[in-house]
Design a protein that fits this description.
This protein is of the alpha+beta class and 462 residues long. The chain has 3 domains: 2-303, Vaccinia Virus protein VP39 (Rossmann fold, 3-Layer(aba) Sandwich), CATH 3.40.50.150; 315-390, no CATH class; 398-462, Nuclear Transport Factor 2, Chain: A. It has helices spanning 15-20, 29-35, 80-83, 97-104, 122-130, 144-157, 169-172, 198-203, 206-223, 246-255, 321-330, 354-360, 385-389, 404-411; strands spanning 2-3, 42-46, 59-60, 67-70, 73-74, 87-89, 112-115, 136-140, 162-165, 179-185, 227-237, 258-261, 272-275, 282-286, 296-303, 337-340, 346-349, 366-368, 371-377, 380-383, 399-402, 425-431, 434-441, 446-448.
Length: 462
């Protein structure tokens, strides 16, 4: 069932806001207001391994090969493939960071990448799909409730080398010279989302813009030491305001040695190229009358400031015999390093990234690192939800291929009937070949191990 699109009308926009844009390069008030009368584009990004066969008739997004514009907004909650991580619902303009990253790093190997303000997870899932296994992505959000959503998004996406933490930017500032790339999609006044966010319109004011600008400057100052010399900062907002965009970059360049980076973007995409007023750093802005998407700003610059050389500390290899046996059964044939977090939860990481965990755990609060494997229970092993959605799962694990009605019943944690031909024991609930989670099939019933907070709570249409 499709959901109706909501239209915005120009007189919703504060006059002070429109006046503040008159000096912004690329702003055309007439076409800008006309764009706010138009339906909001619906866009998704397909998982490169789970979802490239989906939405076959949808229009492609020109700047990203796995992006699609949908003709209407379906009820995503009622689609098991959404819960399986086969695609991510993401605003199209923000997907421009994919070609930006690819231009900056055409061969992204052995990178250490931080997505500092990552919730709900759109840009992190996009970055995860662009990195190879030798690279590591740390996705962070300081607000715990938002970090929970981020964790769910990245668990669905299924990459082992994407870890989730919840820390203040100043915590990263203590890890001098560690990251090759830091993405800061900064909290902002949200004016670029006015077409679809009524609350952002109500909350906008010149004072709010100033408050956001000061917070953005503090965030960049706090995290800057974590970027290595020669590393790249990608700065983005969903605001049109120069105070939150160009001026924030100029204030960074006032205090730090930075070099602006120009990105070759196709003219037909409709992105407006600009520069900061003082230091002439290249920057880019999206307007909804010029691009099929919402308002968005981004820029990239290279750090020239020297940082102390970074060294990994020595550590002792963890030996977990029972967990090792579980790993060999649950995961694919390659080697993994098994670790325990402070809560004694067992998780698997790529061997080349074990040293990263031992370093980072001193500074960061990890919600998720690698693949959570589960825990021993008497003579059994209780597998974690992560495994069922992981790209590194053992594809020979027992599976229950569900129809849509069964899959939605599983996702609503309803009672399920044991189908014929399903053997007793731990089994992955699957829909169209994509894992949804675990069930344990017993003699006369099925125990549903979908985490409670993942449960669909809304009433779905018949």
């Amino acid at each position: 069932m499709a959901q109706q699109l909501f239209l915005r009308v120009p007189h919703d926009l504060p006059p002070e806001f429109l006046n503040s844009l008159k000096s912004v390069a690329g702003f055309d008030e007439t076409s800008f207001l006309a764009a706010h009368r138009q339906p909001i584009p619906v866009s998704v990004r397909l998982h490169p391994q789970k979802g490239m066969d989906l939405f076959a008739t949808a229009a492609p997004i020109p700047w990203i090969t796995n992006g699609r514009f949908l003709p209407e907004r379906p009820l995503f909650t009622a689609d098991p493939l959404f819960h399986a991580g086969a695609y991510y619902v993401q605003e199209a303009s923000s997907m421009l960071l994919a070609p930006v990253f690819q231009a900056l790093f055409p061969q992204p190997k052995n990178l250490r990448v931080l997505d500092l303000c990552a919730a709900p997870g759109g840009k992190s899932t996009m970055l995860a799909s662009l990195l190879d296994e030798s690279s590591l992505l740390i996705s962070n959000d300081v607000i715990r409730s938002r970090a929970t959503i981020l964790e769910e998004s990245l668990t669905r996406w299924g990459y082992t080398n994407t870890w989730v933490c919840s820390n203040d930017p100043r915590d990263f500032g203590r890890i001098n010279g560690y990251f090759d790339v830091i993405l800061v999609d900064a909290p902002c006044s949200g004016s670029g989302l006015f077409r679809k966010d009524t609350e952002a319109i109500k909350e906008w004011s010149e004072g709010a813009v100033e408050t956001c600008s000061l917070r953005q400057q503090r965030i960049l100052a706090d995290v800057w030491p974590a970027l290595k010399q020669g590393g790249v900062l990608i700065y983005a907002t969903c605001s049109y305001s120069e105070q939150e965009d160009e001026q924030v970059l100029d204030r960074l360049a006032d205090k730090q040695a930075v070099e602006g980076i120009s990105i070759a973007l196709k003219p037909e995409w409709g992105v407006v190229a600009t520069t900061t007023l003082k230091h002439k750093l290249p920057a880019y802005r999206c307007f909804p009358d010029k691009i099929q998407g919402e308002g968005f700003f981004f820029a990239a610059c290279r750090k020239l400031d020297p940082e102390p050389n970074f060294f990994y500390k020595p550590y002792r290899v963890t030996k977990l015999k029972q967990a090792q046996e579980a790993s060999q059964y649950l995961l694919s044939g390659q080697q993994f390093s098994l670790l325990e977090d402070p809560r004694k939860a067992v998780f698997a990481v790529y061997p080349g990234q074990e040293a990263d965990y031992h370093l980072l755990e001193e500074f960061l609060y990890f919600r998720k690192a690698g693949i959570r494997l589960g825990a021993p229970v008497q003579k059994d092993w209780l597998p974690e939800h992560d495994v069922a959605l992981s790209l590194d799962q053992n594809m020979n694990l027992p599976r229950w291929e569900m129809n849509k009605s069964e899959a939605l019943g599983y996702l609503k944690k309803e009672n399920l009937e044991v189908p014929s031909g399903i053997e007793k024991g731990w089994t992955i609930a699957s829909f169209q070949g994509r894992g949804l989670g675990w069930v344990k099939v017993l003699q006369n019933r099925v125990n549903n191990y979908l985490p409670k907070h993942w449960k669909i709570r809304m009433d779905l249409p018949e």
